[in-house]
Amino acid sequence: MQRRQLPAALFALSMATQGARTALAQPSSPSSAASPAAAPVSRAVRLINGFSAGGAVDTLSRTVAERLGAVLGQPVVVDNRPGASGMIAADAVARAAPDGLTVGVLDVGALAVNPVLQKRLAYDAGKDFAYIGLVARIPLLLVAHPSVPAANLRELTALLRANPGTYAYATAGIGNPLHLAMEAYRQASGVDVVHVPYKGATPAVQDVLGGRVPLMFIDVNTSAQHLRAGTLKPIAIATRERNPALPDVPTFAESGFPAFEATPWIGLLAPAALTADARARMAGALAQVMAQSDTRNRITALGFVPLQDGPDAFAKLASEDRVAYARLVRDRGITLD
User: Fold this and answer.
1) What's domain 140-255's architecture?
2) Rounded to whole angstroms, how far apart are CA atoms 324 and 301?
3) Residue 165 scores a pLDDT above 50
4) Fewer CB within a 10 Å sphere, N or C end of the chain?
5) Residue 262 — very low, low, confident or very high, per pLDDT cuts 50/70/90?
6) What CATH class does 18-138+263-332 carry?
7) pTM of the entire structure?
């Protein structure tokens, strides 16, 4: 099968960004390892989180905040700013004072997808942020309702090719990583399936559980209870290696798509005008947090893959993904209209 160049964070088809996403790698620049001990520790750090309270990403953010505070020697307080696909939180971080007291947890949607899909954006993802480091990636899984007559990806691809336009897939909305993962699969396989966008992941999952829509990409954490109950059928996991939580589920690479990957990422960043010393201090603290085995274990238990890539690798990945997403959006004719 001919490889196509698709977004590194989701699909990594023939892109040379593997090092930027290597789990548990050492930070990519000397500044990332700088000691955090020399900076003042009197005031609390605000961590702006672009996700709703109570969800898995919020728990991830609070896990990082707690441990980051311990390393910095000052409290780190989570400030949830959900909504608008991460744009509210991203704008808040971009507009914050660059005093080292505001950081943000944002994902691939806010930093690489929105800049491509949104006609008007209040922030510039390439210029308005000081990238601190990657925290985790989110493995995605292609699932089907149990009624779908396919047990694996090869069978599903054959079924969809034989029945163009007959099957549909649910997503959390246009431009959501779940949507873009399926569009990448469609492009790589040539299958014709109908997109059914929802206003959020919850109603999308409910309709797949109910058999009203037979297919979707879903994150491993959300899918776990449904896989155990047998109400969803795993088709293939879109990571380079099998997931420890789902050891019997083959990867796309094992199923005829050797370079396919769907793993949105999450990282820590600050306002662009942050001083080099403050950036190095925060990056060094994050590197220490991500090197802790209890932090990695907690992140893994939440269904994520912990990362330890520093400022340069994070900024490079986000920049390259913006270019690659633009290509995918153009090739697939994806618009928000």
Assistant:
1) 3-Layer(aba) Sandwich (3.40)
2) 30
3) yes
4) C
5) confident
6) alpha beta
7) 0.83
